[in-house]
Amino acid sequence: MATIAGKKSGLVWAVHISVALLVLLWLFPTIGLFVSSFRTADQISSSGWWAALFPAEQNEVYRAADPDDNRVADGDMFVVEGNIFDGTPRDIRSWGVSSRDVSAYQPGETAEMKDGESVTLQADGSYVWRGNDKQLSGRGQRIFITATVPPEFTLENYTTILFSGTGQDNMAKAFFNTLTVTIPATIIPIVVAAFAAYALAWMEFPGRAILIAAVVGLLVVPLQLALIPLLRLHLGIGIGKGYLGVWLAHTAFGMPLAVYLLRNYMVGLPRDIIENAKVDGATDFQIFTRIIIPLSFPALASFAIFQFLWTWNDLLVAKVFLIDATGSTTVMTNQIVELLGTRGGNWEILATAAFVSIAVPLAVFFAMQRYLVRGLLAGSVK
Amino acid sequence: MLSDNPALLGLTTIVVGVGACLGYFFLSNLFLDKVLFPASGPNAGRNINRANMIRPWLFLFPALFALLLYLAYPVFETLRLSLTDRDQGGAFVGLANYQQMMAEPKFWEAVRNNMLWLIVVPAVSTAFGLLVAQLTDRIKWGNLAKSLIFMPMAISFVGASVIFKLIYDTRPEDQNQIGILNAVWLKLDGGIGSVLMLQILPSILLIGFVVIVASVAWSFVRGIIAKGEDKSAWLLPLRLLVAGGALWLIWVSISSLVGIWIGEIPYGEAQTWLTLPLWNNFFLMVVLIWIQTGFAMVILSAALRGIPEETIEAAIIDGANPFQIFFKIKVPQIMGTIVVVWTTITLTVLKVFDIVFAMTNGQWETQVLANYMYDKLFRANDWGVGSASAIIIMLLVTPILVWNVYNARKEMK
After folding, report:
1. From B19's CA, which of B50, B126, B131, B146 has a CA 20 to 30 Å away?
2. For residue B366, what are the CA distances in angstroms to A210, A338, B65, B116, B257?
């Protein structure tokens, strides 16, 4: 678009390739976690997750069936037939009969050993072992195979984290606690802020400009400053640590952004509609509920997503205002941090726990990305 | 019974909370219109005017109350607490807390690291964001690419910390490395590829950085000497500050440039990345850069789209190449947006807590102010020093606060 006249095909290819590389670089970390959450503890600690995506070569040893029980006479020789795989077939690349050369033969070939003894192994694992009376006795012939093992994934970690795990390994309770914190903390600020935004956008009163400037200022006040005074306040008036406190805190901390976003959007609504409604005798309350709210849906959705992501992903506010000494109200972010401390090496638990906690925001993100982008564009102070 | 079931409690809260809000607004309006100043009777006209003077405050009250109690009051209360000592029953101790804090090496470590974060994270995120915004602007699958790079915005700092801890993971020598960084590191062996990746490439980046810093600093310092520039008094300290900061940055860059070529590089040994002093700060910053690049990209991409087409066409006709168009036509036109993105990321950096808390908890010289404050408040239980460090964070935020308010007021006029 920008360089219609100066287009060079080499440059266009360079652009495509560099964007592809950047996207891969950005996705790579998340994919690592995602893949790891489907691997067992042994798999994770024995190889990098990137190796799990490709079939791996693996050496295995099998033994033909016990000849004394299974051999069948065939002329003056004996034959043992069977299948080395017990229900789980492998993709055999090569095989051998001696530990010194484990990949001497291809599937379907026959290994000739001393004095006419021979083994034939097919790709599906079935074998024919032929030899004389003395050769086919004692223990079964060893067969070494080199097989490619397809990538193997398991849902076991998710079962542990969501259902069967005990203590810290079970995230079910923390998941519901997080939901319990998030939903009221998303909805209530919207209601409160919408009224205030309407007043700041469409009502005339002295001090309006100063209030708007104050909201812009409060947008950037670090919430670190609020921790101690408010915790003291909550303990002082008997709210203590708990859901009520964290709801109040999230509601108030989200308020500047909510008022700012909604007010900016409402100011842009067509003046005619509102004035016509006033002429027709509608009260401010009616204008607000019947006209402003339905028209402001995109801005409400933008803020709702912000607030949802922020409260769901929050650690600090929950640690200060919610989680008490018993830890029964822990949220997912906090539990993951604790897991990092106690189970730092157990990546199957950590990866799965982290993925459970980021799955919901990711779903919301991809479903409502349009509103998120719109909110970002309106929310950054120009 | 209610408190036993958090889900039920949450549902009740939504119903009660939303109901109470709506009820408050509806009933207070009703009360105002029907009881206090009824729009009928002998004084109908005067009553309507009075009601309309009060109504905005009814609409504003809950939000204002929340803002004042939860954001404005704590600023002053924290300031007061930072001048008192909890152990002495909250007695006024003047600046003792600040003195105690300044005497702690851990505080200065946090300040130093915060400065590094403040320089590196906004700069790199904005640069990457601008790069991606520009590159994706003209290709068909640009929107898909943007949405994938934007995705980390939805991931919590804690989740991102776990993701990157896996990348930085270290296993003992005799085991397979499962962290990708160590797996790649062990592939480097001092050959030409390694020299290119670890010495030549970083050197080029560092030299580029020094050039940019020097040119920015020069454009500030020039004003002190040159004629015809704005010589107002309040600009002088700013200019000196920028010059000082730039000198420090250049010194750090040049000394690390020398370090790259002189130092022994421990090839073939798995590294515990998060315990390497100074370097580990950068490994933590990567997490935030990974998250914030998408934000910068979205805003800058919209700004790039908003550039008037004619300016670019004119440049093409005059024979400008794509790089000239980008740096001389596009970037100057979106400078305002770049500043906004930069300051917004700066604010995020100042408050960064979760990443450090989850990954190193400030050990191995990775402390930052927000985590230092948390340590003081909730581990050492020292409210005075904790509040003092919160005030330091507030002081660092204040210039941006003033600038934002100033711009917002200018825009409204």
Report:
1. B50
2. 40, 19, 38, 11, 22
Residues of A in contact with B20 (CB under 8 A): none
Cβ contact, residue pair A373, B183, below 8 Å: no
- Average pLDDT per consecutive 10 residues, chain B (413 residues; last block may be shorter): 60 80 82 75 74 81 88 87 77 80 86 86 89 85 86 89 87 76 76 73 82 80 65 70 83 81 71 79 90 89 86 86 82 84 86 85 83 84 85 87 83 72
CB contact under 8 A, A216 and B145: no
* Structure tokens that stand for A143 in this block: 């067969």
Interface membership of B387 toward A (CB under 8 Å): yes
- Write the residue in B53, B176, B351 that is nearest to A48 by C-beta: B176
pLDDT at B234: 66
The C-alpha of B34 sits at a distance from chain A's nearest C-alpha, in angstroms, of 12
- Degrees, nearest 5: CA angle A121-A125-A126: 65
Per the CB < 8 Å rule, is B178 touching A45?
yes
What are the boundaries of each domain within chain A?
Answer: 1-26, 56-149, 159-379
Residue of A nearest to B384 (CA): A228
Task: Please tell me the pTM assigned to this model.
Answer: 0.80
Q: Are B96 and B102 in contact (CB under 8 A)?
A: no
Task: For chain B, give every domain's residue range.
Answer: 2-66, 100-176+273-413, 189-267
Residues of A in contact with B400 (CB under 8 A): 220
Token pair 């993971």 in the structure block, residue: B169
pLDDT per position as a tens digit, A303-313: 888 899 889 98
A71: pLDDT strictly greater than 70: yes
| Chain B residues 212-231 with CB within 8 Å of chain A | none
Q: Is A62 in a helix, a strand, or coil?
A: strand
Residue of A nearest to B369 (CA): A224
Complex ipTM above 0.85? Answer: no
Yes or no, beta carbons of B25 and A195 under 8 Å apart: yes
The radius of gyration of chain A from alpha carbons, rounded to an integer in Å, stands at 34
DSSP state of A322: I
Domain A159-379 sits in CATH at 1.10.3720.10
Q: Which CATH architecture has domain B100-176+273-413?
A: Orthogonal Bundle (1.10)
